[in-house]
Amino acid sequence: MDQVTLAICTYNNARLLDRALAAIERQDHTSKNWSTLVIDNNSTDDTAAVVDRYAAAGHIPGLRRVLECRQGLTHARRRAVAETNSEWIALIDDDCFIAPDWVRQTIAFCHAHPQAGAIGGRTRVAWEVPPDQTVARYRASFAEQDYGDQPLRIQPAASPSHLVGAGLVLRRQALRDCGWLDAGILTDRSGRHLTAGGDTEIVFRIRNTGYELWYNPAMSLEHFISRHRLSVPYLCRLQRGFGQSRPICKSLQFNRQDTLAWRTHLFWDHLRMFSRVAREYLHYRVSTPHALSPDYRIAFHFRLGQMEGAIRFLLKGYHP
Question: Which superfamily does CATH assign the domain made up of 4-230 to?
Answer without folding.
Answer: Spore Coat Polysaccharide Biosynthesis Protein SpsA; Chain A (3.90.550.10)
